[in-house]
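>> received
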Amino acid sequence: MSEQVVRAEKLDAADELAGVRSRFVLDDVVYLDGNSLGALPAHVPGRVEDVVRRQWGELRIRSWEESGWWTAPERIGDLIAPLVGAAAGQIVVGDSTSVNVFKALVAAVRMARVGRDEIVVDATTFPTDGYIAESAARMTGCTLRPVAPADVPGVLGDRTAAVLLNHVDYRTGRLHDLPSLTSAIRAAGAVSVWDLCHSAGALPVGLDEHGVDLAVGCTYKYLNGGPGSPAYLYVRRDLQDRFDSPLPGWNSHAEPFGMRPAYEPAAGALRGRVGTPDILSMLALEAALEVWEGVSVESVRAKSLALTDFFLECVTAYVPEGRVESLTPSAHAERGSQVALRCDDAGDVMKRLVERGVVGDFRAPDVLRFGFTPLYVGFGDVERAARVLGETVAGAA
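>> returned
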């Protein structure tokens, strides 16, 4: 028995989150792709069946009131709030991440003072964020300025209207310094917009604590809401009366059933709503969030760092020298909950890993991504994944 196997057994025995794994539907596959799609919480199918058969099948339209469908976007937003460090009443759930990025970024420009005509965007961002930022810039008459996150403080000025950044880089797993960057954006008089897709549910965010203005995120990664589950939009409480959505809909009207021709926005975070909520996926998400009962984000972060540390250690032990290179920072303060390894034949290697029961994902041209969801990934999984990776790349050499 190798040193790594012994260590994995000891670490699993001491893991205070080990019992949470039973709340998910899992098999003998090592699933390290929760940073793309989280595993299924075991109680969700039964809940969805109730929504379909009873709430929709029997109550039908009465469920908008009797089953709480109408208030689901803000109710579920309040469930997400503590996972990203926000007080209740500031998050509304609905639409996709892309739509919420658009709403937040255009609203941010509209909130900026007259004369500010530049949008700064993370140059390494997920492509859709960049596409939307470019479109928002054209629509608002702004200039788009792509900048590496670390360089943002140096380009901020009197012309900066809004800054769109990713908390964790989707390729490398690098964690950007949200507190200091938000502070710099605020000092420059601009509006901050953070994309939390790869951090919410994996590490503390501290939206309220750090004075973030606007934030968006998906729910199908570390929040395990299911494929295509609705995203969310955070609007800091003191900005809500100034939030001017570019997508005003009847659901965000002050009197939604008044059917008035003139738009009057509702009070609070409800201004982020647009049209009829996608109830089936939204209530599946609500059920999925129950796996967080009794679990703190701080304990998740501690285990995440331990898992990724151990994986890097095992990679060093098992993988032939020179075959892979870690793109993920070794410093804890700069690491999210994934490890990205550069590998010349990464696409073929990942296919062989999946065939052998280790599921991560491939990002062109040469990156192997492994996401570590502390709620259901154990240290034995980590050891096995690194060992199989070592055997795979050695056999391909």
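>> The chain is about 35% helix and 15% strand.
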